[in-house]
Structure to design on (492 residues):
């Protein structure tokens, strides 16, 4: 058996519908919204501000902190208990690493930039959507950056390499699945997030990564448009 | 420090029955309610009151009843003051503000008996439905408690039971039967600063009050929960006036649901 048609009818290299917005949270220094299919991410940036406790301050450069959190009603099954857990802490960590190479933290000595990412609704691919929203939020906050970061998950469903798996595909039983969340700096093509679970052969990894690159180009355009819509002077 | 700068200005405006944003003292900001915004929840609502925006989501689960009420379902309400929504909200265990808000919103729904918890019993002493109400702010521009209470009841009104076969819940199947809601409790907090009473504060006003009274009322002006807050006492006349304002404003909001 082969995986002939995707559950929602998409092409194998086609993402779900995406929607990007900047400046959605007035109280934050900067904010972003990113939706891919039914996965929705809000990101708020607070700072740069003085880092406390003081002994943590670095006179050479600022600190970027990323927090990933699912709202209690955002999961596919039971209520998600509020508060941090091992999964959310790890995702916070890889999110920080995904964004770090683009942020000029040496401009913010002794300071901290906090990024809070929240999910009201998820349908797989949440860490990638969170990174996309966070990158928009950092730019919206006026944090000096080299580029945006675009992120998407790629992987395998049975015998097919696909982009942007949804929950149904992740749970596909026949032939197994693999899920590989990826983040890319579009201008250099470098990877800043790369995780994988499931089974892939090296050739499939290569094919999936090139598929991710194509998708991230499209995401970057949406991110840029979101920021332009917010800041462009209306004639 | 900030208080010393802002409070005299708030009072100066209020002497002319005015607010910073041009509103009257007892005037609410524009309200927008959107239902069923979260597909993963059994019921949900997004409520905007001026710049304050919250999402309430309801999850229904099966649990065992409390020993003292073996044939009643359970209600649980949580307001999570996410650091996403304001520089004043911090990460970590729930702050005292978030606990107070959760409990006041909870009491309004519970004591009004808007939900008949007897109807949530599946097998006496063993299995009951648990209604978990979670309220998350997206942006806090003041009056979180009232907006949370409104979002909670709005979400409950459109909540439907998930498929349950006696053993387990199938959250994927389409939801059919509506959660029975018999009343619409609306909490309104009336604030007092010097001798002025006002409602629906923006973030700056929220910090500069002397006393407050939250009054939750249902249809026909019946009161079902109250909570006094703030450092200064309230007189009997204050309470009388505050209750009147709260009931009037609750009626105004209830029409929008």
């Amino acid at each position: 058996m082969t995986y002939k048609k995707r559950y929602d009818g998409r092409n194998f290299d086609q993402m779900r519908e995406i929607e990007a917005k900047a400046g959605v949270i007035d109280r934050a220094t900067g904010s972003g919204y990113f939706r891919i299919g039914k996965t929705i991410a809000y990101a708020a940036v607070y700072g740069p501000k003085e880092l406390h406790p003081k002994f943590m301050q670095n006179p050479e450069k600022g600190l970027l902190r990323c927090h990933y959190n699912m709202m209690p009603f955002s999961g596919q099954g039971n209520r998600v208990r509020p508060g941090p857990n091992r999964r959310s802490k790890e995702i916070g960590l890889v999110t920080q690493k995904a964004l770090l190479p683009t942020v000029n933290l040496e401009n913010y000595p002794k300071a901290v930039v906090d990024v809070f990412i929240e999910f009201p609704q998820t349908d797989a691919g949440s860490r990638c959507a969170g990174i996309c929203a966070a990158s928009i939020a950092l730019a919206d906050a006026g944090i000096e950056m080299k580029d945006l970061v675009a992120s998407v998950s790629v992987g395998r469903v049975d015998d097919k390499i696909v982009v942007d798996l949804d929950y149904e595909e992740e749970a596909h039983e026949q032939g197994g699945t693999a899920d590989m969340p990826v983040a890319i700096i579009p201008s250099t093509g470098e990877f800043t997030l790369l995780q994988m679970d499931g089974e892939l052969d090296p050739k499939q990894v290569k094919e999936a990564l090139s598929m991710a690159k194509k998708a991230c180009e499209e995401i970057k355009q949406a991110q840029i448009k979101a920021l332009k819509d917010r800041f462009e002077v209306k004639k | 420090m900030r208080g010393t700068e802002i409070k005299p200005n708030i009072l100066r405006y209020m002497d002319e029955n005015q607010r910073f944003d041009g509103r009257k003292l007892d005037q609410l900001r524009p309200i927008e309610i959107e239902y069923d915004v979260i597909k993963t929840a059994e019921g949900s609502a997004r409520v905007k009151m001026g710049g304050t925006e919250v999402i309430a989501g309801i999850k229904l689960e099966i649990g065992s009843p409390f020993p003292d009420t073996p044939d009643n379902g359970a209600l649980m309400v949580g307001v999570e003051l996410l650091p996403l929504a304001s520089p004043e909200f911090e990460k970590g265990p729930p702050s005292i503000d978030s606990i107070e808000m959760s409990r006041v919103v909870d009491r309004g729904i519970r004591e009004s008996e808007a939900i008949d918890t007897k109807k949530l019993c599946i097998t006496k002493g063993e299995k009951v439905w648990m209604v978990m109400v979670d309220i998350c702010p997206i942006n806090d521009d003041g009056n979180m408690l009232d907006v949370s209470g409104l979002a909670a009841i709005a979400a409950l009104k459109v909540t439907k039971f998930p498929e349950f076969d006696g053993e387990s819940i199938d959250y994927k199947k389409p939801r059919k039967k509506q959660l029975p809601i018999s009343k619409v409790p609306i909490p309104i907090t009336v604030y007092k600063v010097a001798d002025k009473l006002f409602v629906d504060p923006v973030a700056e006003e929220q910090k500069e009050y002397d006393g407050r009274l939250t009054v939750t009322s249902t249809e026909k002006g019946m009161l079902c929960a109250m909570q006094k807050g703030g450092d200064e006492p309230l007189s009997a006349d204050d309470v009388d006036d505050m209750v009147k304002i709260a009931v009037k404003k609750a009626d105004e909001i209830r029409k929008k649901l």
About this structure: The mean pLDDT of chain A is 96. The two ends of chain A are 57 Å apart (CA to CA). The longest helix of chain A spans residues 202-231.
